[in-house]
Amino acid sequence: MSSPKKEPNSKDSQTQSSKDEVSPKESKHSCSEYSAEWREVRPIQLAVARKLLSHVCAIADSSTQNLDLGSFDRISFLILVPPSEVTFQQTVFHLRNSGVLQDLVSSDQECMSKLEPEQYVVKMDRKAQARIDNLTQEAHRNPYTLYILVHDHAHWDISSSSCSSPDSGLGLVDLLLNSQQVKDAANILILHVTSFPFALQTQCTRVSPYNEIHWPPAFSNDVDLYHERTRYFGVSELLETTRSGGCLPLLRYDSSFESMSSALEERFPKLHSAVIRTMVLIQHYCMALVALSGRISSSHNLHKHTSVETMEIVQALLTAAQQCPSHHGHMVLLRIPSLALAEWAHRRLCRVRKQLDMENCFEIILGNPSQTLTIRQHFTNQIKTWLKDQDCDWVPHTYLELEALPCILILSGAEPLGESLPRSLKYCDLRVISCSYLHRTTLEQELGLAAYLVKAESRPPHKPGPGSDVIESDPEPEKLSSTDNEEEEAQAQENGETLLQSTQPVLSCQKSAAECVPAQSTTSPNVQKGAFDTLPFLSKAQAQPQLSSQSFPYSPTAPQSQAQAPVSHQMPPKSTSSDSSSPRASSPHQNCSWARGVGRPPSVLLPRALYDIITVSDSSGLPRCTSFLPHIYVAWASSFRPLLSKMMTCTEQSLYYRQWTVPQSNHMDSSNRTEGRSDNFHPRRLLLSGPPQVGKTGAYLHFLGILSRMLIRLMEVDIYDEEDINNSVQAECVQFHPPNAPWPKMDIMKRMPFDYIIHDAKYDDISSIYCPGYKPVAERNPLRQEDVYLRRRTSRIKLSKYAAYNTYHHCEQCHQYLGFNPRYQIYESTLHAFTFTHLLLGEDIQLYFIIPKSKEHYFSFSQQGGQLESMRLPLASEQNPDCIKTPIFTPTTGRHEHGLFNLYHAMDGASHLHILVVKEYEMAVYKKYWPNHIMLVLPTIFNGAGIGAAHFLIKELSYHNLELERTRRLEGGSPADVWPFIILADDSCVMWNAVDLDARSGPVEHAVSLKQVLQHMEACPELAHYSLCGIRKWSSRGLKGSTRWEPFFRGHLYDFLLLNVDRSQNVQYDQNRFTCHDVDFTLRLHSAGLIVCRFNNFSVMKKQITIGGYKTFIIKTKMTDVPTSVGPSQYICAPDSKHLFLATPAQLLLEKYLQHTSQKLFPLSIKNYANPVLSVDCYLNLGPEVTVCFMSSRPHSVNISTSGLLFSGLLLCFADAFVTSGFLKKFTFLKGATLCVISADRSSLRQTVGRLELEEEWRFRLSDEFQTANAKEDRPLFFLTGKHI
């Protein structure tokens, strides 16, 4: 086509302008208003994600045990979307920016491929079957992974697979998600996500009403509940604008368009209405483009070829980009369901745009679900400039990425498939959609295209105010509208013949088009491609004039312009968006139309028939469309049904549809019927419903993220991670054993000096033990024991496969081990009494064993009466790789739920004997939670005792049982080398590690099973010569910086002990102790000449458990059971005085008093390491500022040399006959040193003073005698203090 002579500022100026559009940053006045909010996660989305998580946890916590979250260590997921390429890319886009994949990848994968998100999203087409089949097989292979199938846009395909042909592409959801393999997989969770859940809420639904999650309202009584400063503007708000009055409604119809279409439909009844309406609509747009380009004059009678509504839409599209320095503009959506008609409309508009030289003014996009989004490079560069994207290969894949791009989007397809639209959407033109949409789902999803999130500052136009329909370039607008105007309708009817004559050229073309379309096309809008390519809506004379990009005759500021469409009535002037109502009113770029309109919902144009239907309310006050059938595949259960109520909540609406709708035979839920049952819900299926475009994708992606983190959190525990203390000075730096020595040598261990120093950080607040040659590093800050727990350092560590678990762990392998499964009968157990005599207690001790039937083979019973005789022990010579020889005793209190008693995984399935040692009053609750565990019940008198009593009874019972087993073996003719060891394990030991000696990086640790640790220690050739063995306590810094590695250590042992009850039979645990009993016991073992050994090549991790335990002491008064604040000074009182008595064991009060008041009791010992307090035959904690020197009075005991050592105090606690006056006279004391003598009563206290001739060197006063603050019936302890003369 030849071009006429170019006018100034026409094509050249426009081309230059378009060149500048590529790089608006070069302009002096670029717009800074642009912002893309794709990656924002709103508070309401977080709330919905947490609701989803709580529902999943509720399924897991239910008694049905349909979901065992404790057995999963990770998640995987697959998001199913409709077969729309834009929806697929849109979901991939959100997934990539959500951070969910970063939570799934392992820590060593620093970078993630850009293609990786595509692996988690699949379009529901024929290729989806292979993907879901692979996921089902993978779920079967990986029972410890929770797989989540997210079915997005779940209302799209609800066809039954049995009623759908393979070529239709329908029925895939039923075929794949409702298969028996998916239903039976215990580690597959299905989440349906939809804006229109009605079709899934029938009498045969597979989703329990308790598993429905509804999007919560963001506002209540005009209060922003989530403080996100946005309001949702959806279908109900659109309908509200039609009833508000005083302003142009956002939802309306075009009477001029309706008149033209109706006239043509009457004249050509054989031509499908969709064809006619599409052709008329495109004629309107083409004529509006020509008119606004200045190519035609008013003599062309524009009102016969276009409408005011279309003129307004096109003018807003063209002027917005010109007003903004960066050429930001609006989107216009044309909804043309027929793909053939949509392709024709796209070609026709592109042709007109090209003829008018407007190719760089706005883009025309064909939205084909089966094709990727395609736009011209010019507009791609423009978007990249706005985004400041430097990637040369970047192209938009979603409609969201077209933010602020001036464009016409022609969206095709039978129904929208979940495509999200940008905030720059200004007009939603639905004038071509079918008027036969009389189903609620179908109608509301079309209207849902206009759903919008409005900034809270700019209220949606329920009241007279700013409307998105006003052209922003108009400072004083006078709106010209032919919308729903009765006078104009009448005039259109009168001038119908004239209108038909004016469209004669068009109809002649339509005739020719109809002739070349097959017969079936007269009743179907899906006309063949190219059938309308030759329809000349514009004559050549109309297309010849050149466009002037600066001249727009149709302007509200010039109402008498040549291009003004003659209408019968003008709307009264309507105020535009004021500065105060605009969210960007303070912007320096007031001329950016996109920035001013981004907070306003789009206008929607409907066919007149649909408009009349949805704007009419029924008797309940709801729009008439809400009473439509939910879906074409659903039928009403009864014609005598109530109407939906306006006051119904989402939950009540769900119950309404569940009661009053039934699926038809072609519905996928029609087969979900079970004889004799009223429901047949899938136990692991959820339904998330929310309005269109509200942010459901972001919500369920965030749910996946927090669920993944929660599972990781469930698989992680807080491990005490404390560095050893008091390590600054080493007495000797000698390598005793080779670093790789597997077992200790007895002769070397005897030469290795015993380390008196306490290195465990949990004892940072106790008295240090005097050791010759050791010098404390610095002064330690005294800390109260109550504060030590709070300040202890922990690390989050993921559980290994060899971890010990509490009662919340339920995996398939553990069901039989735990003996608690609703599918089976709870294991029966019997209570057996066991009595033995102990000289120290002076009476018979009666204990009780609770033995499950499945564990009776570990015990020996009498043939007559079945009385418990002994606990069977293996021979030392026995070797069984699948068995642990050593019985494990775990004393526990207050931790029936949280104690780590499930050792199945820790033992790697090996057979072992594990006994829980519980107090009598806790017997029932421990039996309830651990029905398949053996329990040793302590006597009633030990209900208030400490950990010392538990260890004392375990040790003495084990030695007595050892003697019984030796006797039983001899009587049976077997050798008597019975295994003499037991394990004393803390109830918080969670994992075990072994050290690998690597020459390059030094010693490193890796997780091992408890089975491996114990079997290694049991295999030690000289193990019988050791009285006590143990392993290290784990620390993340324990192996760092060590220049040498000593595999064995001789010193204090804690938490996990291998005790030889035979060799240590003469050294007992102090049954009265509450604190530091293990320190006291180790010191007495060493002083008895027995060898203790720690295996440094193994370490134990201890979990931080804040509930229960033997360190949980409650000090309360006798007057009330409520714990009261009682200071340490009130723990003691003068004998026979009137004092507030405490309901606390006397030994505990004494230990607490000595710990907290040592500065008063031993003033010369404070921070005086060189002059320690002499403690005879026992270790008591006198506080961190006092040093204690332990000495044993037993003959032939091993003690440190005290030559030349002056003591600042003397502590005698229950001194027995081995403590004599001659023994005490071996030691030298400072003048003024303090003596403290402790006895069980006042009589023995005086006898001790006399027997030891203490009055010769110590001065006593009557006021220096004290007792613990206990009543007489609680047997208080007494102590006497004195000063050295």
- Overall number of strands: 42
The stretches of 5 or more residues where confidence is low (pLDDT under 50) are: 1-28, 106-115, 458-589, 782-789, 821-825
Number of helices: 33
CA radius of gyration? 43 Å
Helix content: 25-40%
Q: How much is the average pLDDT?
A: 81
Distance between the termini: 126 Å
What general outline do the C-alpha atoms trace? elongated
Strand content: 15-25%
By helix and strand content, what is the structural category? alpha/beta
Major sheet: 12 strands, mixed
Describe the protein.
With 1285 residues, the protein is an alpha/beta fold. The protein is built from 33 helices and 42 strands. Strands 22, 23, 26, 27, 28, 29, 30, 31, 32, 33, 34 and 35 form a twelve-stranded mixed sheet that branches. Strands 20-38-37-39-40-42-41-36 form an eight-stranded mixed sheet. Helix 2 crosses helix 22 and helix 9 crosses helix 10. The protein is elongated. The chain starts with 10 loop residues before the first helix and ends with a strand. The model is unreliable at 1-28, 106-115, 458-589, 782-789 and 821-825 (pLDDT under 50).
